[in-house]
Amino acid sequence: MVGSVAFDTLKTPFGERQKILGGAATYFSLSASYFTDVRVVAVVGEDFTAENEDVMKKRGVDTRGIQHAKGKTFHWTGEYGENVNEAKTLNTELNVFETFEPSIPAEYNNSDFLFLANIDPVLQKRVRDNMQKVKLVGGDTMNYWITGHRANLDKMLKGVDILLINDGEAKMLADDNSLPRAARKVMEMGPRALVIKHGEYGATIFFRDHEFGAGDHPFRAPAMPIDEVRDPTGAGDSFAGGFMGYVASQGEISRRVLRHAMFYGSVMGSFAVERFGTERLQSLTREEIDQRFNTFRELTHLD
Amino acid sequence: MVGSVAFDTLKTPFGERQKILGGAATYFSLSASYFTDVRVVAVVGEDFTAENEDVMKKRGVDTRGIQHAKGKTFHWTGEYGENVNEAKTLNTELNVFETFEPSIPAEYNNSDFLFLANIDPVLQKRVRDNMQKVKLVGGDTMNYWITGHRANLDKMLKGVDILLINDGEAKMLADDNSLPRAARKVMEMGPRALVIKHGEYGATIFFRDHEFGAGDHPFRAPAMPIDEVRDPTGAGDSFAGGFMGYVASQGEISRRVLRHAMFYGSVMGSFAVERFGTERLQSLTREEIDQRFNTFRELTHLD
Predict the structure, then answer these.
(1) Is the Cβ pair A220, B256 closer than 8 Å?
(2) What does pTM read for this prediction?
(3) For residue B19, what is the DSSP state?
(4) Which of B128, B155, B160, B303 has the smallest set of CB atoms within 10 Å of its CB?
(5) How many beta-carbon contacts under 8 Å exist across A and B?
(6) Pairing between strand A113-116 and A136-139?
(7) Which residues have C-beta within 8 Å of that of residue B17, sequence separation ≥ 6?
């Protein structure tokens, strides 16, 4: 996976934290590490400590692709109000991320799966072009690239098999307020399947006809009704990590596997928000994960 | 069931309609009529025609409880913008509804199930008190009663087994932004179970511990990803009709039955919004309903 490592300064109705370890690469890697071997490509600054890196290493994540650059690590400052689905960005210091040029270690070349977290689509495409042998490419993006870097994004989307974005991004990308119609339009841009995340209401995967199996029926995974969402940061990246990690752990990429991956994505997202930062994702067991998977099944299955 | 019969004048992104037949009683009755026998208590004015009443009669609905009063029928005028989940009320002419005094025909006395649609909680309670022998009472309410008639509403809630409201109403009623916590608080006010409707994201039923079965696991039914929601009016009442109608058609009131009822509620809501007014609910077949039930199952079930 390629993405950002960051320090996050944030405030939620449950408290505040200064410069805690975050970033899509961190959340994704920790989440996926419960299902498969993960290799990260990212950049950090001189303020990124060995202890920070150990958070990933302890989960067996291969961090050889993390470049150490002069300067400071990407720093995001934001807050969440009563509606925890919406982050308000107060400040973004790109720092070393501004000149990030992803470089893929030779040892990563035999990877079967690739996830392009939300970074400049020019960089996403470059990484994707350098990984021609992968079986499946997952990707993410955000409003900033949709509105301001559309031509580059369009090129990137042609190389993505499964795009994972939220409701607002899907509607904006397709310029259509109907989700199923927006989904079809986005899939015409490249992706063979589209995961739309609905925050506290779960997520839906739409398939292009005859891709990954027969028919074009979507599939919806619930989110967990959680009493206290302490810190929603990284929920989407944790979802993506559970989703891609589970797919990578399976022998085939079928609709059935993708349905289960939707559940595992939701499960990992639900753990991530229980505590601040990556705390909860550092110390899970596969047993806890499968227990929650069963809770999700009970939440949605008739019999 | 007791509720409003109305004429609706409305505008959606798909068109406009003048004074078409609507009201909670109409949507609920038509929807429930596909599952069980329905008896209505309501009031209409002199502008309510035999053709209007035939819409219900053709579906076998017992309309002997519909009072014909001097004056005009309740008239609602509203519109929906791009976000079809939110109706904007432009005008409300209560007309004969202003002095509505529900009167229950003697022939209704052996009813086993009662649904109190969204009307003045004083009237809801009066009807409920007159139907002591029913096995299960369902109910609805809205912001207007929650904020302005709280004492009356609290008394009404003590007599309701299952309350069906939406996200905003649940949060307002409990004064709590966490849905699961709000659900528990609402259930402390009387209801043994609470159905919270999430619009295009489906609905969740929460149970009080040891009510209708063991445990306190909620259950979530999806909504249909629909390309074109032509007219969202009556979706909630159609949901309630499918939900209560299905429960009434079963020999027991168990968690399993209630889970299936959640699906049938969603199914009926999804049909209602496909066309303007009650059009789609007038001409369904049980086969179409069960076919869509299976689509909902495919949408959510892993295997």
Answers:
(1) no
(2) 0.94
(3) E
(4) B303
(5) 81
(6) parallel
(7) B8, B9, B10, B231, B276, B277
Of A83, A218, A227, Cβ closest to residue B181: A227
Q: Please give the ipTM for the structure prediction.
A: 0.91
pLDDT one-digit tens code per residue, A43-89: 999 999 999 999 999 999 999 999 999 999 999 999 998 777 778 99
A198 → closest Cβ in B178, B201, B303: B201
Closest residue on chain B to A295 (Cα): B217
Distance (Å, rounded) from C-alpha B267 to C-alpha A144?
A: 37
Task: Print the SS3 string covering chain A.
Answer: CECCCEEEEEEECCEEEEEEEECHHHHHHHHHCCCCCCEEEEEECCCCCHHHHHHHHCCCCEEEEEEECCCCCCEEEEEECCCCCCEEEEEEECHHHHHCCCCCCHHHCCCCEEEECCCCHHHHHHHHHCCCCCCEEEECCCHHHHHHCHHHHHHHHCCCCEEEEEHHHHHHHHCCCCHHHHHHHHHCCCCCEEEEECHHHCEEEEECCCCCCCCCCCEEECCCCCCCCCCCCCHHHHHHHHHHHHHHHCCCCCHHHHHHHHHHHHHHHHHHCCCCCCHHHHCCCHHHHHHHHHHHHHHHCCC
Distance CA A114, CA A65 (A): 14
Q: Which residue of B has its CA nearest to A262?
A: B302
Test mutation, B217, B257, B300, chain A, max A CBs within 10 A: B300
